[in-house]
Amino acid sequence: MKKVYIALFMCVACARTDNDAGHKVEKPNVGLSQNSPIVLNHPLIAHYLSIIRNKNTKADEFREYLKRISNILILEATKNLPTVAVNIETPLKKTTCQCIDPSKRIFIVSILRAGLGITSVAEDMIPGAVIQHIGMYRDEKTHKPVRYYNRLPTTFTNPSVIRVLICDPMLATGGSASEAIKLYLEKGIKEENIIFVCVIGAPEGVKKLLEAFPKIKIIMASLDEKLNEKAFIIPGLGDAGDRFFNTMTPD
Ligand code: PRP
User: Fold this and answer.
1) Which residues lie with the beta carbon below 6 Å from any ligand 1 atom?
2) Over the stretch 139-186, which tens digit does the pLDDT of each residue have?
3) Would you say 198 and 168 are in contact if contact means Cβ atoms under 8 Å apart?
């Protein structure tokens, strides 16, 4: 089993490119011919990651820095949102500005619990977004996702114009993310309009997602080394939900 992980890690060769916003992104090859995740390569992200990965970082600081990383991730995830021209008047003259196109609806989806850390930032940044929640936890023995909350409407009006940002800081086996993505595809959302936003991910999870849904986009702060035998991300940061909500030790 160890050999498989090492082999996977070895094939994560990175190509670096400038994106439209001018900062560097990495597009590592996770062994797939066509698609790759977008890994933000930014000194501030590196610094913030060093804080949230540290086991001695307390919950208050963990929350703060996870949100700072989320800000940068959401900027990247929203850079191609369509805009429309609006005429306004500054104190000095009439001018035309660009606003987010209100006819193209944006869903921000939190995979509970840990996804709330990213979505709390996304909600503040994206005007007019619809906020949705999917409750899921990963069974400790099987590592499969168990869904416990889903209040999505049975149908969406005009799903082909809806863009969906699914947020969860951790992409480990990819089981939880896959379940969430399927819920939206079943309702007619286009695969190419789905972006999965995470803080850290394992090559195994990335590969699983992009094999199943080759048209989605994955945006992440770090592509980590591997999963361990308990399917935890290595080096990772532990359990993001427990660290964010300060539930590491039972009361
Ligand atoms: C974690 C994490 C993801 C999932 C990732 O949630 O936040 O939702 O596990 O694992 P996967 O890619 O193998 O599915 P967890 O089960 O710890 O629930 P929590 O957010 O409520 O803590």
Assistant:
1) 111-114, 136-138, 143, 145, 168-177, 205, 231, 239-242
2) 989 999 999 998 888 888 899 999 999 999 999 999 999 999 999 999
3) yes
Quickly tell me which residue has 């804080």 as its tokens: 51
Segment 207-212 mean pLDDT: 96
pTM of the model: 0.88
Q: Could you report how far apart the first and last alpha carbons of the chain are, in Å?
A: 36
Q: Collect all residues with Cβ–Cβ distance below 8 Å to 202 and sequence separation of at least 6.
A: 171, 172, 173, 223, 224, 225, 226, 227, 233, 234
pLDDT band for position 34 (cuts 50, 70, 90): low
CA 102: distance to chain centroid? 23
> Is 239 tagged catalytic?
yes
| Cβ contacts of 146 within 8 Å, gap of 6 or more | 136, 137, 138, 139
User: What CA–CA distance (Å, rounded) separates 196 from 209?
Assistant: 10
Structural domains of the chain, with CATH: 2-81+100-245 (3.40.50.2020)
